Amino acid sequence: MQQQLLPRVSLDVGYFRRTFSNQTVTDNLDVTPADYDQFCFTAPTDSRLGTVSGSQVCGAYDIKPAKAGLASNQIVTFAKNYAGDTSQTFDGVDVNVNARPTGRLFLQAGFSTGRTDTKNCAQVDNPQTLRFCEVRQPVMGNYRVSGGYTFPWEIQLSGVFQSLPPDPIAGTGAAAGSVAVANYTVTNATPGLTLGRPIATPGGSITVPLIDPSTYPDYGDRVNQVDLRVTKGVRVGQIPRRHHGRLLQHVQCGARPDLHDDVRPSVVDAADIPAVRFSEARRPIHVLSGGRKARVRRGVKWQ
């Protein structure tokens, strides 16, 4: 929708909805959900886990020993052939204001916001894939302001400021395509294990998500970017030349764009007893390259 607010000032508003359907799943025909045993265990003690810290966690599954290690007889088929919903839907809103007060000045400001609802809830083989199978990201906005002014002598100054929201911290999750932020590796030595037998899953370990990603508050920090450009036109003979100067400024408070999603117990330090350290959890994989970037460019405008 577009509407004139004042002379030379307009408002654009748009609503967008995108739905991805006909999703596929991989089904091992040699096993069914009945071939898995449910068990509980004690979650590690860590303040970042909230109420889950140190509590009993259920809803984890291990394959029965008789079915462990069988050759997979897998097929890829549509998720709609199974009970449960598998889909991905995005709802978003864009708002922009455009203004041209004079022939030399233009301004634009706006924001975009929305969220994605992802469901991987088809019941195929392992019932643990249904744990936190629906992820609804929080609503986060993208803000931007831009403008430019043309001075006499063919000098133009323009700039853009935008504030970008962080991406949800991706991980292996409870199902393909989901987002996980606190995975825990369960082994036979995990405290409070109620399975009643050794873990039959090949490798002797099972990865279990501890927290619903939809409620997890720890996202990366916003990235603020400023882009300034100065252009000067110069005529050399019959060929106008245009010189460009550009300054880019990237700012990210906290600088934590990519973080480990696994909760891994490490060696217990005396200073941390009785708590268990998780040295890899939430540690940055790399830090955004901040600071200023300058670029000068020359161009030729043919007339």
Description:
The protein has 303 residues and is mainly β. The protein has one domain (2-300). It is 0% helix and 50% strand. The protein is built from no helices and 19 strands. The strands form 5 sheets. Strands 1, 2, 7, 8, 9, 10, 11, 14, 15 and 19 form a 10-stranded antiparallel β-sheet that branches. A 3-stranded mixed β-sheet has the order 13-12-17, with no helix packed on it. Strand 7 (86-99) and strand 8 (105-120) form a beta hairpin. It is elongated and about 85 Å long. Mean pLDDT is 78; it is low at 169-180 and 250-291.
Comma- or semicolon-separated keywords:
303 residues, mainly beta, ten-stranded antiparallel β-sheet, three-stranded mixed β-sheet
The oligomeric status of these chains comes to single chain
- Estimate what percentage of residues fall within beta strands: over 45%
Q: Could you say which structural class the secondary elements and strand pairing correspond to? A: mainly beta
**Helix content range of the residues, please?**
under 10%
How confident is the prediction overall: mean pLDDT?
78
